Each structure stands twice: as C-alpha cells, then as structure tokens.
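Hi all, posting the design record for the shared folder.

TITLE: backbone redesign
STEP: 1 of 1
STRUCTURE INPUT:
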C-alpha cells in the first residue's frame, strides 16, 4: 500500500516589515501579465487583500532575519512601488505566510495553478455596481490604477444586452464582438444585428459595428460631416456619440437633418462668394456626379501675366525657399520652424500660380458654376459650365474674337448630321469609331500622341472627366492620384517635391487651353511626347496598401514596376520617430537596432529604456544609414 504524502506544514501568518522581504528565484511566475502600477493603486485604495508566501533566508544554516518571497512577487513589487511614491515606508508590516524551504517551489506553483482568474464579465459588472452605488468615475479609476476611459469602457461593456452579455460569459461572443456591439446602447438593435448575422463573416466586429451605426453619420469619413465640421455641428445643438473602443474615431452624428441644413447653409454662403466672381449663375448640390455635369459645356481659363506686385512676391518667395533649402542642405530634416515656413511658402506660391489663370470676361458672363462637396469634405467648385441655351451665344462670342481651328472644326463636326435621326447618327459614328481604331493600329506615332494627349488633359489642366477634349477613352481615377489623404506630410517629401517641380515645368510649357494641346503635341518630336507621357503615367501609379486590402494583383504589379525601375527607397525616405519608430512596438524598434549592428549587450541595455528614449536612440543610430523597414526594401 502506497504511503500517502502528508500535507505541507505551514508555520502561520506573521507581519514582517517590507524591508526584510527579498525577491526569490523560487517564484514560478516569471512573466507578469498585469500592470504593477494598477495593483499598487488598488493596494493604496483597498489595502493588501492577500498575504505573501515567504521562506526564511538562511546563511550557513542560520536565519538572517530576512525572508524571500516565493508567492506574491507582483504584490511585493507593488508595495515597493508605493514606497517610491512615498505612500508607505519600508517599515510597512506585510502579512506573510511562512513555509518550509522544502515546500517553497510547490507552494508557489500551487498558488498560481489552482487559483481561478475572474472572468472579465464579472469585472465589468462589478465596476458598474460601484458606479450605480454612487462612486465617481475619477475615484474608481484612481483606486484601481486605471484611466477614466478604461473605466468608461468597462461600464459600456456591462451595458450590452443581458442576453448577449450572458452569451459572452458562455464563450459564444468574444470580447472584440462585445466591444463592437457596445457602440449602441439600444439592446433591441444589438440583439437584432447579432441574430440576423447568420454567417461567421457577418459577425466580424467591423460588420457588427457598421450594422449598428448605419442610421448615423460617421464623423471620421462622411463628406457632409467633414464639410460642416464637428464644432459647428455641436454648436448648433447636434448630438455626438463616441465609440470608446476606436482610439482615433471622431464619433457618430445622430441628427442627420441638422447636418443637412448646416451643409446647405455653408454651401449657400460659399456660392455667394463664387457668384461674386462674375458668373452668370451659380447652383449648389451636396454632390455632383458625371451624369449631372456631363449635361454642360465647358470653358477654360487662360494664362495671363501676373501683376507686377504679385510677380515680385512670387520671385521673393522662390528666392527665400531656395535660400532655406541651401542653408539646411546637409541636415537630415528641417528644423520645425523652417519646415513650417517652407510649407507656408509652398501654399502661397501655389496660390500665386493659380492667379496666372483667369477666365475671359466675355465667356464668363455666359457660364456658371456648381458648388458641391468633394472628397474628404472639401468644397468642390465646378467653374466654367455652359448651359445648352447659352452655347450659341458663347460660340458667337468666341467667333467674334477669332477662335482657333480646333473650335471651328468642333462646331462643324457638331453641325453635321443635325438633320438626321439620333439613332442613325449613333449608328454612323459607331462605324466611324471602328474605322478610326483600325487606322490607329498601324499608326503608332499617332497612337502615342493620342494617349499622351488624353492623360495630359486630365493631369496638367483643370479639365474634368465629364468634358474631356479627347477621343481616347482613358479615365484617370482622381482619388488614386492624390496621396495627401493617405500620409500626413507627404507634400514635404523629396519625392513629392520632385513631382511638383516637374508638374510646374509642364504647366509652363504646354498651351494654356487644353483644346489647343492636340495641335501642339502633333508637332513635337517623339522624345518630347515620351517625356510628357512618362510624367503623366507616373501620376497614375498607385501602390498604396489600404487597410484590409483584399486584392493583391495591384500590389503585385506595383512590386514588378518597382523592380523594373530599380527603386531604392533609401533615396527617398529616412526613418524617424514621426515617420516610423514612434508608430511601432518596442520589439520592432529593437529589431531595427539589431539590424543596425547593435551588440547583444547594447540590445539588453536598450530593452530597459522607456519607449520615448528607445525612439530617440533609434533615430540617432539609424539617421545616417540606409536602413529601411521590410515593407520598403527591394
């Protein structure tokens, strides 16, 4: 018969001064998953609710008067933290259970293995009960070492539908799904959305959140919300609901009717400013699409000399910009004040260059504009639109000033077939289109001009897709060519500046009117046409990887293009805190420093630094290297 092992004998709980307690290497828990700061705050508010387990320290077989902590290392660390905060002293009496040396390891293991962790749901309910009983948010946060927002998040989770909350306890809903459901306080809506999501993919957190907020306006990306602005909306009495679980989210606007009214009022005020420019008419529309704008004809601005005063200002700004860049040519990045000034100069130079363009008064009085809301909530003003009833008078005005051959040809083309039925005209011009395609196949030089002409009209002029003076149906996706919406400060990078300089060059070389571009191109050497084509094609490159990108074909093609041009991102991008290190985790910074040949000893020392210090160290060590994150390497 096997002899039963006796239960480990415990010598009893006694109070021991904190200064007599030492860390033990016999504590089986070497990795802590919870914050010592939070535990310290809890002990400060509620006292030490659980004793430590210790073993008497021996030296040469005799007690030293010290004790090593074999269970409760995190509590011990929290007490030492309170000493640092001068909340207690090292004479603080700590209740300790003293065990035999032979049982130390087993006791430590038993405490950590047998103990059952509290389910998060119980924690959420407990926090809600404290608030319901009258405790303040700030007080609860301080007593548990949490932020006020963390307490609010727990309360929000505890407020989810009781049926769904019970399902969370049972494991039928995970925490991410519970957080998504908490975006709404409407229990019926929460249950309806959950129950109607029969497929697993329909219960992804993002889809649950989207379903619960479909009747509200997303302040982060809705064009009307961005156009009006949250401050103006709330100042007018509008309510805003914030999602506590989306860090950078602006919230949801609940009063769509108020938002529509504010947007209309702002559009009307803007339309009055535009009408003061001298247009015959100005209309407003929340959005303006291709089908609406294609009903109108179009006039274009002409390039005019700048007044002497503005030309002097432009020259002075360019000189100042060149001087600033030369003065800091050797620096890795511009000082903050210099960078801000360069940005001011660039914005003003762009305004002055726009002043080079002006509509002819005799044409402007016969045309109008539509004021709408464009991408990102920015005002989108479509100037130079010509109504059908004004076209004849406009043509007469152009003829009176001796319009070019292109205008005459276009007018003649439109007048031909005016006595035929619309269906017959469509039929005959379809045959003409097929014949043009057949001819163009054997004329690569003309095809080159046609493609370049189409792209240049869209990328070097203010021509819109609904009224392009081109016979080739290639459409540039305008949203894809504007990179500023994807990366803050992209306009200040060497690559974007190089592109902007090239754009200004072509704008100064090309004819001022896009309707004159074909005649200009057809007379140029192939080398000039190819240069312009390369510039235009470059503007259409889109290698941005969007969140939750599902299609890989575009990104694979971008990788092939990068290989073909031997792209070396070290030439165009430098690592910094703002650009990279401040936006990644500590272990990713350590990995970058390891790449930079930091020794193992240096790495171990760096691991003890705070993240801000780590970011600063990475910036310094990698500043003059060609280090790149994996995603930017060849």
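Okay, here is what came back for every position:
SEQUENCE:
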């Amino acid at each position: 018969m096997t002899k039963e092992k006796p239960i480990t004998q415990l010598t009893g709980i006694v109070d021991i001064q904190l200064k007599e307690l030492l860390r033990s290497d016999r504590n089986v828990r070497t990795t802590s998953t919870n914050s010592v700061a939070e535990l310290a705050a809890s002990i400060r508010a509620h006292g030490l609710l659980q004793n430590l387990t210790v073993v008497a320290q021996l030296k040469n077989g005799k007690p030293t008067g010290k004790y090593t902590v074999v269970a409760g290392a995190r509590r011990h660390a929290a007490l030492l933290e309170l000493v640092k905060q001068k909340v207690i002293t090292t004479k603080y009496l700590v209740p300790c259970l003293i065990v035999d040396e032979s049982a130390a390891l087993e006791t430590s293991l038993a405490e950590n293995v047998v103990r059952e962790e509290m389910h998060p749901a119980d924690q959420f309910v407990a926090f809600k009960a404290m608030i319901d009983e009258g405790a303040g948010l700030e007080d609860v946060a301080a007593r548990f070492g949490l932020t006020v927002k963390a307490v609010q998040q727990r309360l929000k989770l505890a407020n989810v539908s009781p049926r769904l909350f019970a399902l969370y306890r049972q494991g039928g809903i995970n925490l991410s799904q519970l957080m998504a459901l908490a975006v709404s306080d409407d229990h019926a809506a929460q249950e309806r959305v959950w129950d109607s999501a029969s497929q697993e993919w329909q219960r992804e957190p993002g889809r649950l959140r989207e379903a619960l907020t479909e009747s509200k306006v997303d302040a982060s990306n809705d064009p009307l919300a961005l156009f009006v602005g949250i401050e103006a909306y709330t100042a007018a009495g509008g309510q805003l609901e914030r999602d506590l679980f989306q860090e950078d989210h602006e919230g949801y606007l609940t009063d769509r009717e108020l938002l529509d009214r504010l947007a209309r009022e702002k559009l009307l005020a803007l339309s009055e400013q535009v009408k003061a420019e001298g247009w015959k008419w100005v209309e407003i529309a929340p959005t303006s699409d291709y089908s609406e704008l294609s009903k109108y004809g179009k006039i274009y601005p002409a390039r005019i000399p700048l007044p002497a005063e503005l030309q002097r200002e432009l020259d002075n700004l360019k000189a100042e910009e060149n001087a600033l860049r030369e003065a800091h040519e050797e620096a890795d990045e511009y000082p903050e004040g210099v960078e801000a000034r360069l940005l001011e100069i660039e914005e003003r130079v762009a305004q002055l260059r726009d002043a080079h363009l002006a509509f002819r008064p005799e044409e402007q009085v016969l045309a109008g504009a539509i004021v709408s809301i464009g991408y990102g909530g920015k005002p989108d003003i479509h100037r130079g639109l010509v109504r059908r009833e004004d076209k004849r008078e406009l043509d007469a005005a152009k003829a009176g000033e001796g319009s070019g051959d292109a205008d005459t040809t276009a007018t003649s083309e439109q007048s031909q077939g005016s006595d035929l039925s619309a269906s017959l005209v469509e039929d005959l011009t379809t045959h003409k289109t097929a014949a043009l395609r057949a001819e163009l196949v054997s004329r690569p030089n003309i095809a080159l001009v046609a493609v370049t002409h189409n792209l240049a009209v869209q990328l070097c002029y203010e021509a819109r897709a609904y009224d392009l003076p081109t016979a080739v149906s290639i459409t540039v996706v305008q949203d894809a060519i504007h990179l500023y919406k994807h990366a803050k400060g992209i306009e200040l990078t060497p690559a974007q500046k190089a592109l902007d300089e090239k754009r200004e060059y072509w704008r100064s070389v090309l004819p001022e009117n896009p309707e004159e571009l074909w005649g200009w191109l057809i007379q140029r050497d192939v080398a000039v046409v190819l240069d312009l084509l390369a510039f235009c094609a470059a503007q259409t490159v889109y290698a941005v990887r969007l969140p939750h990108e599902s299609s890989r074909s575009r990104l694979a093609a971008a990788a092939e293009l990068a290989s073909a041009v031997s792209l070396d991102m070290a030439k165009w991008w430098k690592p910094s805190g703002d650009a990279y290190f401040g936006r990644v985790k500590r272990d990713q910074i350590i990995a970058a420093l390891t790449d930079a040949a930091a020794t193992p000893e240096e790495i171990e020392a760096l691991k003890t630094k705070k993240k801000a210090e780590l970011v600063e160290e990475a910036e310094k060590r990698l500043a003059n290297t060609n280090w790149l994150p994996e995603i930017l390497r060849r």
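COMMENT: The chain has five domains: 10-114, 148-257, 290-422, 443-549, 570-632.
Let me know if anyone wants the other runs.
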